[in-house]
Automatic annotation (TrEMBL):
GO terms for molecular function: beta-tubulin binding; microtubule binding. This is IC97/Casc1 N-terminal domain-containing protein. Belongs to the DNAI7 family. Residues 32-227 form the IC97/Casc1 N-terminal domain. InterPro entries: IC97/Casc1_N, IC97/Dnai7-like. One of its GO terms (cellular component) is axoneme. Residues 7-61, 69-79, 664-680 have a biased composition (Basic and acidic residues). It holds the Pfam family Casc1_N. Signal peptide: none annotated. Residues 709-754 have a biased composition (Acidic residues). It comes from Micromonas commoda (strain RCC299 / NOUM17 / CCMP2709) (Picoplanktonic green alga). Residues 1-79, 653-689, 703-766 are annotated as: Disordered.
Length: 766
C-alpha cells in the first residue's frame, strides 16, 4: 500500500488559502443574498403600505357611496323584524290560550320539576284496561307534541339548553306510552281466561276509530292447536294476520301485534333508511304466558307472579332444549308470514315496497331476515315474511329525492282580473326520483301557509293519493311533515349528505352507477340569510338555481342564484321561467337565435351580496373569478387583496362591491314594478317563503346536471363531378353516321351544324 505523500508547508499554506477564499466567497454570496432579500422585503413592505393606503381609500369611498343604501336596508330589515316578532308573539299567545282553554292537566314540559313529578305518577300507575290505557298513551303523546312545539320556540330564541332538555323529555314521554302499553298487555294476559275465545285464542283487541291509526291485538296459545296455522283479527285491528310455524303453535306463548302512528326511531337511525310513518310502526312480539287462575269449590285461586304487572318477551326463534345439537343449530329459522292493511293515502316512491325492522343495538332500520314483501294495491294489504319479530315499518331511503336537479321561485299568477298576484309565490323543485321523472313538485306559499300546488299533475298511479291535498293549506313545516309521512320526503338534514349519490347525465334519472357519493352542505348561517334574500325578492323577481353553486371556486360559504326581473305579471308560468333561464347566452359565443332576458347572477356570502359573471351556459369559469370570490375574506384583505387583483394582469381586476342583501343589490337596476312588488310584500309572507326554502335545503342539496354539449354540424356530403353527356352521332337515312366538316387542322368544327342551320337559304339563280 502506497504511503500518503506529505504536503510541504507551502502546499499546506496554499490549500488553506484556497479554502479561506472559498469560504469568503460563500460568505460574500450569502451576504449579497441576504442584502437582496432585505431590499426585497423592504420594497414589499413599502408596496404593502401603499396598497394598504390604496385599499383603505377604496373602502372608505365605497362606504361613503353605499352609506345611504345600507341605512335604507337597515331600516327595511328593522321594520320587517318587528313585524315578524309580533307574529311570533301572537302565535305563542294563541297557543298558550288554546292550551289553557282545553284545561290541560299535564304539566308544562318546560318546567323540569313538574315534568319529572308527572313522569313518576304515570310510571307508578297500576295496569289499566286497554281502553283506559289508550287514553293515557294519547296523553303521553300529547305531552311529546308539546315538547316539540316548545323546542321550536327555544330554537328560535337561541336557548340551546332548553332545546336539548325538551328533546330528551319528548323521548321520555314516548317511552312512558310504551310502558303503559306493556302494563295493559300484562293485565290482559293475566286475566285471559275471563275473556279469551277458546276456539280462536283471541284475548282481545282495542283500536281507534278505523283501525288505520293506533290498535293493539292479543292472541294467547293456551289451546296449543298445531292445525290452526293462521291467526286473523278483525278490520278494526288492521285486519292483522299471521301464518305461524309449528314451533310457535306448540309453545305456551302469546303474540301481541301493536300499531302506532308515531315514528320515534328514524331520527336516531344510523343508516339512510327512514320509516314511512303513514303506514304505521307495527310491533310484533312473542310473550310468555302467566299462569291462569283456577276455580275450586267456588273459590278462584289467582297465582301472583312477575308476569302479573309486566311482560316477558320471548326471543324468536324460540329456544329449544336440543338447540345445542349441531343439527338444531344448522336448521333454518322458519319464517312468519305477516300481513295487515295500510292506509290508501301513501305515495311509495320505490318501485318495490320495502319493509325493515328496528335494530335497537345498532340503532338502525335493517332488512335482514325480511323477504317476499308485497302490497295488494286493490285492498292496500301489506304482506311479508320474516325470521325476526320486532318493530316493523315500510321504509325508504331518506335521500330518495336528492339531490335536486334544479329549483326556482316565481310569483303566483294573478287571480281573476287582478293586475297582481295574491302575494303568494310558487316554489318548484325538480327531484332526482325516477318515480317523478321530470315532473317537479311545486308549492304555493302565502302568508303563513303553503300547499301542494300541482298535486293533480304528479304521475299516476304512485302519487294519486296526494291529490286530496291540493287545497290543504298548512304551515310549511306541517305540510312537508305530512308529505314525508305519506312517503314524499323533502326535508333533508346534514346527516343525509354522506348518503347522497351524485349521478352523471346518463344516469340522472335513476339506475346505473353514480359519479360520486356524498355532498358538502352549505354553511347553515349563510344558507339561512340566502333563503331570506330569496324570500324578499321573490315577489318581483324570478329566482333560479345555478349549477355553479356547488362547484369551484365557490365554497361552502358561497351561495349562487340566477335572477331576472318580472316584467309582465301575467307571464309567470313555468314555461316563462324556462324561456328566460334556459335561453341565456354566453356573450363570448353569442348567437342570434338566443336572447338575453336581463338575467343576472348573485353571489351571497358573509360579506353580503354582489353580482358575478357566472352563467350556466359557460363551459368553464375564468380564473379571475377565484380572485373575486376570495376578495376581502380570510387573509385576502388589505394589501393582499390589492396584490391578488393585480398579479399577472395588465389591468387590475375591479374589487367586488358587496351590498347588504339581495334586495339592495337589485334595487338600482330594478324597474318601478319590481321595486314596488318587493317593498309591498308582507313581511310574514316573505318569511314563510324563506322558511320553506330553508326546510327544503335547496342550496345544500341541489346538484344540477352538466349542460348537454351541442352536436357539431354534420359536414355536407361532397358531390361527385358530373361528366358531360356524350352526344349521340347523327345518322343518315341508311343509318350510317354523318361526317362533320373539318377545319384546316383536320378537327371537326362542333358549331358547323349550328352555323349551317343559322345560314340563310341560297337565292335562286335567275
Amino acid at each position: 500500500m502506497a504511503k500518503k505523500k506529505k504536503l510541504s508547508a507551502e502546499e499546506k499554506a496554499a490549500k488553506a488559502a484556497e479554502k479561506a477564499a472559498k469560504e469568503e466567497e460563500k460568505r460574500r454570496k450569502a451576504e449579497e443574498r441576504a442584502r437582496r432579500e432585505e431590499e426585497a422585503r423592504l420594497a414589499r413592505e413599502a408596496e404593502d403600505r401603499e396598497f394598504e393606503r390604496e385599499e383603505a381609500e377604496r373602502v372608505a369611498a365605497e362606504d361613503a357611496t353605499l352609506a345611504p343604501t345600507r341605512e335604507e336596508s337597515a331600516g327595511f330589515h328593522a321594520r320587517r323584524d318587528a313585524a315578524l316578532a309580533r307574529r311570533s308573539l301572537n302565535a305563542r299567545d294563541e297557543y298558550e290560550w288554546e292550551r289553557t282553554a282545553r284545561c290541560v292537566s299535564t304539566p308544562d314540559p318546560r318546567d323540569g320539576r313538574a315534568f319529572d313529578e308527572w313522569v313518576h305518577v304515570v310510571d307508578a300507575t297500576p295496569p289499566l284496561p286497554f281502553a283506559d290505557a289508550f287514553e293515557l298513551m294519547e296523553t303521553c303523546e300529547s305531552v311529546a307534541g308539546e315538547c316539540e312545539a316548545y323546542r321550536a320556540w327555544a330554537a328560535e330564541d337561541g336557548d340551546d339548553d332548553l332545546r336539548a332538555a325538551l328533546i330528551i323529555r319528548k323521548r321520555v314521554a314516548r317511552r312512558l306510552a310504551e310502558t303503559v302499553a306493556d302494563k295493559a298487555t300484562a293485565s290482559c294476559l293475566d286475566r285471559a281466561n275471563e275473556h279469551q275465545d277458546e276456539e280462536t285464542g283471541y284475548v282481545g283487541y282495542v283500536a281507534d276509530f278505523n283501525g288505520l291509526g293506533e290498535w293493539c291485538a292479543l292472541w294467547a296459545n293456551h289451546v296449543k292447536n298445531p292445525r290452526k296455522k293462521t291467526i286473523d283479527f278483525p278490520g278494526s285491528a288492521g285486519e292483522f294476520a299471521a301464518e305461524l310455524p309449528k314451533q310457535v303453535l306448540t309453545a305456551a306463548v302469546a303474540m301481541r301485534a301493536r300499531r302506532t302512528a308515531v315514528d320515534a326511531h328514524s331520527e336516531l337511525c344510523a343508516n339512510e333508511l327512514m320509516a314511512v310513518s303513514g303506514a304505521g310502526i307495527l310491533s310484533v312480539d312473542l310473550l310468555s304466558l302467566p299462569p291462569l287462575a283456577t276455580t275450586r269449590k267456588g273459590w278462584t285461586v289467582k297465582p301472583r307472579s312477575s308476569l302479573t304487572d309486566a311482560i316477558e318477551r320471548v326471543r324468536y326463534p324460540i329456544p329449544r332444549p336440543d338447540d345445542d345439537d349441531d343439527d338444531a343449530r344448522g336448521a333454518a329459522t322458519p319464517a312468519v308470514r305477516i300481513s295487515h292493511v295500510i292506509p290508501p293515502t301513501l305515495a311509495l316512491v320505490d318501485p318495490r315496497p320495502r319493509v325493515a325492522w328496528w335494530d335497537e343495538s345498532n340503532q338502525k332500520w335493517t332488512e335482514d331476515g325480511v323477504s317476499d314483501v308485497n302490497v295488494d294495491y286493490d285492498t292496500m294489504r301489506l304482506s311479508f315474511s320474516t325470521t325476526v319479530l320486532e318493530r316493523f315499518a315500510v321504509v325508504q331511503s331518506r335521500v330518495a329525492m336528492f339531490p335536486y336537479r334544479s329549483w326556482h321561485v316565481r310569483p303566483a299568477p294573478p287571480v281573476s282580473n287582478a293586475r297582481a298576484s295574491n302575494g303568494s309565490v310558487i316554489i318548484s323543485v325538480e327531484t332526482n326520483s325516477p318515480a317523478l321523472g321530470q315532473t317537479p313538485v311545486e308549492f304555493e306559499v302565502g302568508d303563513g301557509w303553503a300547499r301542494l300546488a300541482n298535486a293533480d299533475e304528479l304521475p299516476a298511479p304512485t302519487f294519486v293519493a296526494l291529490r286530496e291535498m291540493r287545497d290543504v293549506k298548512l304551515p310549511p313545516e306541517a305540510l312537508l311533515a305530512e308529505l314525508s309521512r305519506r312517503g314524499v320526503h323533502l326535508t333533508p338534514e346534514a346527516r343525509d349528505a354522506p348518503f347522497v349519490e351524485i349521478r352523471s347525465n346518463s344516469v340522472a334519472g335513476g339506475g346505473g352507477e353514480g359519479s360520486g357519493t356524498g355532498i358538502a352542505t352549505k354553511d347553515p348561517a349563510n344558507e339561512r340569510v340566502a333563503c331570506e334574500d330569496v324570500g324578499i325578492i321573490a315577489p318581483g323577481y324570478f329566482v333560479h338555481s345555478s349549477r355553479w353553486c356547488a362547484r369551484e371556486p365557490f365554497g361552502v360559504g358561497d351561495l349562487v342564484v340566477r335572477v331576472a326581473e318580472v316584467r309582465d305579471p301575467y307571464l309567470v308560468d313555468a314555461v316563462d321561467v324556462h324561456k328566460i333561464f334556459a335561453n341565456e347566452h354566453d356573450p363570448r359565443e353569442w348567437r342570434p337565435d338566443r336572447y338575453d332576458w336581463g338575467m343576472r347572477t348573485l353571489l351571497r356570502n358573509e360579506r353580503g351580496c354582489t353580482f358575478v359573471d357566472v352563467k350556466d351556459s359557460y363551459v368553464s369559469l375564468d380564473d379571475s373569478l377565484e380572485v373575486i370570490v376570495r376578495d376581502g375574506r380570510g387573509e385576502r384583505v388589505g394589501a393582499s387583496a390589492v396584490r391578488a387583483r393585480r398579479e399577472g394582469r395588465d389591468e387590475a381586476l375591479p374589487a367586488p362591491v358587496y351590498y347588504p342583501d339581495a334586495r339592495s343589490t337589485l334595487r338600482g337596476d330594478s324597474g318601478r314594478g319590481g321595486r314596488e312588488r318587493m317593498d309591498d310584500a308582507a313581511a310574514t309572507a316573505t318569511a314563510t317563503t324563506a322558511e320553506t326554502l330553508r326546510l327544503l335545503r335547496v342550496f345544500s342539496f341541489t346538484r344540477e346536471r352538466e349542460p348537454e354539449p351541442e352536436p357539431e354540424p354534420e359536414p355536407e356530403p361532397e358531390l361527385e363531378p358530373q361528366l358531360e353527356p356524350v352526344p349521340e352521332p347523327e345518322l343518315d337515312e341508311d343509318g350510317n353516321p354523318v361526317e362533320k366538316p373539318a377545319d384546316e387542322d383536320g378537327d371537326v368544327d362542333p358549331d358547323a351544324d349550328a352555323a349551317e342551320e343559322r345560314a340563310p337559304p341560297p337565292e335562286p339563280n335567275p
